[in-house]
Amino acid sequence: MIEVDARAGVDVSVIVPVHNCRPYLDRCLTSLLIQRVAKEIVVVDDGSVDGSAELADLYASCHPRVVRVVHRQASGGAGAPRNTGLSMARGRYVFFCDADDYLGPEALERMLAMADRNGSDIVLGKIVGHGRKAPVSMFRQSADRAPLEDSAVYNSLSCFKLFRREMLERHSIRFDEKLLVGEDIVFTTHAYCHAGVISVVADYDCYHLVDRPDGSSIMQRPESRDPLAWLRMIKKPIELMVNHVRPGPLRDHLLRRHFRMDAFARLGRPFLEACEVERKEIAAEVADMCDRWMTEGVRDRLGAVDRSRIAALEDIDRLVRLAHIELAVVRRGLTGLRWDEGDTGLAVTGRVALDALEPDRHPEIVTGGVTLLLRPRQPSAGQQEVTLPVIRQGEEFAGVIDVGALSSGVWDVHVAVECEGVIRTARLGADRDGQIARPAPRMIGGTIALPYFTRPYGNLSIDVGGHVVTPSGVVRLVRSRWAAGHRLVLDGEITMGAITPDVRAMRRLVWRERSSGDERRAPVTARASGAFTARQAFGRLGAGTWDAYLELDLGGPPVRLRIEAEAELVAPPSTWWRGAALRTVKPYATAGKGRLSAMVRTSGPKAFLRRLLR
């Protein structure tokens, strides 16, 4: 633990608002004390009456150079105590941590390192939820610089981040003390508007967001989820943002977040749970937001269901149907999966339907077209999702995936259902008949295609080229012998179940030194039957133990298979002089698995004489 006093430099001021959270405070403060940075912990007791204040004072008495406590009258929200803590902070950076949450042991160390390396104004550390939903989109990978317009960082408007204090002070960024819900959204939106560099730490669980079993936190109370109150609150940060960001692509990108996550989200489940009068009020608030801030740039960034909602804001019944369609469960099942005989098509049969919530109360939902949708898991240049037609009868459908038309990569299979202009998609395969087995791999134009079911969910995907599914095969040594030039000649054959790799697929023989990882490659002469011949000049290999592999090109990453060998088929050792050094090469089959390796030794005249005299 690093402790500092008032005369020393403070890197991070951690501000902890506390109100009646005694059962969680120990874990929170302990997680902060073990952070390996120069820190101070400012605990602001907001009128606690459950022993939290006394516990905070105990921590301050035990760690007087690190923990400071201030007591104030209860404000009813987190904004006022956070502002109090911010006014007391001395650190270069500040971090806000709620008293019922906690940090990972290396959280501040990693975020501070990221900030110092990049001159960051804001650093987002990965948030994980414990009984509560945590944001995901902005934590897919770490980023030294995550521009607002080209990333998902603005999706996260909580204040659980590392902020440069000088930026907060220069722009008078503070929490809105009048708001009991959303005060951190206003604060973080304001900070984003002035941040020059925003960074993301996504490879470590920094902030642990905890659900209180008693539901006593502000965000767990029913009034915090009131859709009308939320819509009226969210207009304040939107107004703040548009006053700082001029019209254009960046503003449209930020507005899209507010419309999708704040406005149109209230036209989903909260809309169905509202009464008739409340539904009209919710629609009116969303319509007002659209009148004020909806642009063509924002509209172009929205999905089909949200564009349909914009057109239906004066039609409450239509909004209800759209909510039911969006929230309906896509009930689907895979009933058949096989290769077409002698073709590159993968035949898929299944069933699909939409099951609406509250089946006795929802309006009739009539589904339209059904298609299969193939999405590249990690799209490369030129790769786009592929839509395939199916034949449909009731809930049953049948289609064929032309695997030969797919480029190299992993393709995830979805089923898509159209309903009143809204497309609902879902992964296919997890619910399948027990008799359905994974189809065997198939070679298509020199590329291997491997249908498989993902783990742990069991969804159907197609690996074209062997990117995540390692192609299986057996390479056997048929004969080996020494030839001129101290070349070890290997005759072998490869089998890969029912498929035979193309002669162009057998790229080369690779000898890899077991300790150093050094490699030597030799060309391969391949034949259509799966047989091959390779020659390795062992004069090029240094001392060590070398393992033999056959390397294949199956349309994706190179595939290496160890060469299996029976001891009687392995050539005898060979010894020769090279200058003043004696070189000995001993091919052998390894114990147990019987794989081809070779031991190479070199020795000078003295070592050779010692060996002879033993």
Automatic annotation (TrEMBL):
Domain Glycosyltransferase 2-like: from-to ranges: 13-169
Stored InterPro entries: Glyco_trans_2-like (IPR001173), Nucleotide-diphossugar_trans (IPR029044), TarS/TarP_linker (IPR054028)
Annotated TarS/TarP linker domain residues: 237-322
The keyword Glycosyltransferase belongs to this UniProt entry's keyword annotation: yes
GO terms assigned for molecular function: glycosyltransferase activity
Keywords linked to the UniProt accession: Glycosyltransferase, Transferase
A Pfam cross-reference name: Glycos_transf_2
PANTHER family named among the record's database cross-references: GLYCOSYLTRANSFERASE, GLYCOSYLTRANSFERASE EPSH-RELATED
Protein name per UniProt: Glycosyl transferase
